[in-house]
């Protein structure tokens, strides 16, 4: 359905960065106001949407569209532009898009190999990678500056404050670029940045939201699974999946345990902002970016927690027919009302459907699709929602709508899609770029020592077939303050079973004898 007219939207977005779906025109960076970071962090005058959606053509099985998009990129894109962009955004959307496009243009297994293609996208990716490197050059910690001018490097006045996700979401793209080019420098700087962040974790194994790249001091000390940190967790696990290096998995496991222990609340449905030093609550909202987390939990094999956290966002969506940027779980209302067609909730829905095959998730996808069709679809594409309460629209269709939101929706329903059947070493990046990395690019030292398998999903109730029939399914509805019952067919008043997260268990033991100061020694260990 949404694929119909895809090429039409692409033509509008090309050669500018992004489509204004209300005006049917393209938009590039805001040269009139260089401080407009909402626009200029992302739009670099480099045909952003075109590059970001290259592998969507592969998912939508459109070979002609893929070829023509690749040829347009080769013909028109240059990174020798006077654009100051965010390293994070340029990496996930542009570098990731180019690398994925290159992999499909060269790998015969998918049927998208392009005759006469001569690695031009890889050359563009290499050029972009080089232009991002100045962000790392004068950093004492190895954590990159958040922004770089693609022509002139890091401006002297550039801020030293960066968010954790900004610095910790580079390793997949930089690692793949290094391996394809046989040039280790990209992977090295990205790895150093990631470790540099992790090495500054607190005693609770939590990382903060914003850090000073020169001093390594945390500036904003809230830990969460949402904005500013989200894809840091994602890249730890996916770096392990793609590159097979156990170190990433070990760090992920430690980081994930701390998330469950301190960020997850006692109901087990809600993941909050807590202080990295003491685990104390720092705010009463969740953001829409954190809705990707259940998908990551699926990848980590933690289906029970994934199902629960997804139910929380599901009920917010039901309440507003969209996910507001911020939802206040204390007041149970909207704190920031926009919904810029973000993918995260749909991404999690997709991963949960793949893992459980519970038709409930198809129902969720259908709900999302119908909602988007009903209020966001306009003549030239889909428009961002300025206010989920009024459904007033604004003239932006961010590049991730085509790269992620519609890709995951499509994959949810297209059960025969090649990527739903692929038994291979591949990941979806945080921008949903697909990286199938063949063995020739694995490090020779990688011996496939780990042989982890996750247990298959077991439906907890023999007679009931769907997640919505779990006795605790209505808890999340209560938590978001949504009036409509989830389970009217079971009980007109709803039925709640008291929620319980796994208890935090402390082992306490006493030393056998007082120490030299005459004090009794007590050992405390978390389990
Ligand atoms: C995307 O660009 C990526 O998913 C990123 O990790 C977070 N934000 C947007 C979509 O919401």
UniProtKB/TrEMBL annotation:
<protein>
    <recommendedName>
        <fullName>alpha-1,2-Mannosidase</fullName>
        <ecNumber>3.2.1.-</ecNumber>
    </recommendedName>
</protein>
<dbReference type="GO" id="GO:0044322">
    <property type="term" value="C:endoplasmic reticulum quality control compartment"/>
</dbReference>
<dbReference type="GO" id="GO:0036503">
    <property type="term" value="P:ERAD pathway"/>
</dbReference>
<keyword id="KW-0256">Endoplasmic reticulum</keyword>
<dbReference type="GO" id="GO:0005975">
    <property type="term" value="P:carbohydrate metabolic process"/>
</dbReference>
<keyword id="KW-0479">Metal-binding</keyword>
<comment type="similarity">
    <text>Belongs to the glycosyl hydrolase 47 family.</text>
</comment>
<keyword id="KW-0325">Glycoprotein</keyword>
<dbReference type="GO" id="GO:1904380">
    <property type="term" value="P:endoplasmic reticulum mannose trimming"/>
</dbReference>
<feature type="binding site">
    <location>
        <position position="430"/>
    </location>
    <ligand>
        <name>Ca(2+)</name>
    </ligand>
</feature>
<dbReference type="GO" id="GO:0005509">
    <property type="term" value="F:calcium ion binding"/>
</dbReference>
<dbReference type="GO" id="GO:0004571">
    <property type="term" value="F:mannosyl-oligosaccharide 1,2-alpha-mannosidase activity"/>
</dbReference>
<feature type="active site">
    <location>
        <position position="344"/>
    </location>
</feature>
<feature type="active site" description="Proton donor">
    <location>
        <position position="325"/>
    </location>
</feature>
<feature type="active site">
    <location>
        <position position="230"/>
    </location>
</feature>
<dbReference type="InterPro" id="IPR001382">
    <property type="entry name" value="Glyco_hydro_47"/>
</dbReference>
<keyword id="KW-0326">Glycosidase</keyword>
<dbReference type="Pfam" id="PF01532">
    <property type="entry name" value="Glyco_hydro_47"/>
</dbReference>
<feature type="active site" description="Proton donor">
    <location>
        <position position="89"/>
    </location>
</feature>
<dbReference type="InterPro" id="IPR044674">
    <property type="entry name" value="EDEM1/2/3"/>
</dbReference>
<dbReference type="InterPro" id="IPR012341">
    <property type="entry name" value="6hp_glycosidase-like_sf"/>
</dbReference>
<dbReference type="InterPro" id="IPR036026">
    <property type="entry name" value="Seven-hairpin_glycosidases"/>
</dbReference>
<keyword id="KW-0106">Calcium</keyword>
<keyword id="KW-0378">Hydrolase</keyword>
<dbReference type="GO" id="GO:0016020">
    <property type="term" value="C:membrane"/>
</dbReference>
């Amino acid at each position: 359905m949404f694929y119909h007219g895809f090429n039409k939207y692409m033509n509008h977005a090309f050669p500018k960065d992004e489509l204004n779906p209300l005006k049917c025109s393209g938009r590039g960076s805001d040269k009139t106001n260089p401080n407009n970071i909402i626009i200029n962090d992302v739009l670099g005058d480099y045909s952003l949407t075109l590059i970001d959606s290259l592998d969507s053509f592969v998912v939508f099985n459109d070979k002609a569209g893929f070829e023509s998009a690749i040829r347009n990129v080769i013909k028109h894109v240059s990174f020798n532009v006077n654009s100051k962009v965010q390293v994070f955004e340029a990496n996930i959307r542009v570098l990731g898009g180019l690398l994925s496009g290159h992999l499909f243009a060269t790998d015969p297994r998918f049927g998208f190999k392009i005759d006469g293609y001569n690695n031009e996208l890889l050359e563009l990716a290499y050029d972009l990678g080089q232009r991002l490197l100045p962000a790392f050059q004068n950093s004492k910690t190895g954590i990159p500056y958040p922004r770089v001018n693609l022509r002139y490097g890091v401006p002297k006045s550039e801020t030293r404050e960066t968010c954790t996700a900004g610095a910790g979401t580079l390793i997949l793209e930089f690692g793949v670029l290094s391996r394809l080019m046989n040039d280790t420098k990209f992977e090295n700087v990205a790895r150093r940045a990631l470790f540099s962040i992790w090495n500054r974790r607190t005693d609770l194994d939590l990382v903060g939201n914003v850090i000073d790249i020169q001093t390594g001091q945390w500036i904003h000390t809230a830990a969460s699974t949402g904005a500013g940190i989200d894809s840091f967790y994602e890249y730890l696990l996916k770096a392990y999946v793609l590159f097979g290096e156990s170190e990433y998995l070990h760090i992920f496991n430690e980081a994930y345990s701390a998330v469950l222990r301190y960020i997850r609340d006692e109901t087990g449905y809600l993941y909050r902002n807590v202080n990295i030093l003491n685990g104390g609550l720092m705010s009463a909202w969740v953001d829409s970016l954190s809705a990707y987390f259940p998908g990551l939990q699926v990848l980590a094999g933690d289906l029970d927690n994934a199902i629960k956290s997804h139910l929380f966002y599901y009920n917010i969506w039901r309440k507003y027919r969209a996910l507001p940027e911020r939802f206040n779980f204390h007041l149970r209302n909207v704190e920031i009302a926009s919904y810029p067609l973000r993918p995260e909730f749909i991404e999690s829905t997709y991963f949960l459907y793949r893992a459980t095959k519970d038709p409930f998730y198809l129902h969720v996808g259908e709900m999302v699709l119908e909602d988007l069709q009903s209020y966001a679809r306009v003549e030239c594409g889909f428009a961002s929602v300025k206010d989920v309460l009024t459904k007033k629209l604004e003239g932006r269709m961010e590049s991730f709508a085509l790269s992620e939101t519609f890709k995951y929706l499509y994959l949810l329903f297209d059960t025969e899609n090649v990527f739903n059947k692929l038994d291979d070493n591949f990941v979806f990046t945080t921008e949903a770029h697909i990286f199938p990395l063949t063995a020739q690019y694995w490090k020779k030292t990688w011996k496939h020592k780990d042989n982890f398998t996750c247990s298959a999903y077991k439906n907890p109730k023999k007679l009931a077939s769907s997640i919505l029939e779990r006795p605790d399914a209505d808890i999340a509805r209560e938590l978001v303050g949504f009036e409509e019952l989830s389970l009217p067919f079971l009980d007109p008043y709803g039925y709640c079973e008291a929620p319980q997260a796994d208890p935090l268990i402390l082992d306490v033991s006493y030393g056998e004898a007082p120490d030299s100061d005459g004090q009794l020694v007590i050992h405390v260990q978390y389990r």
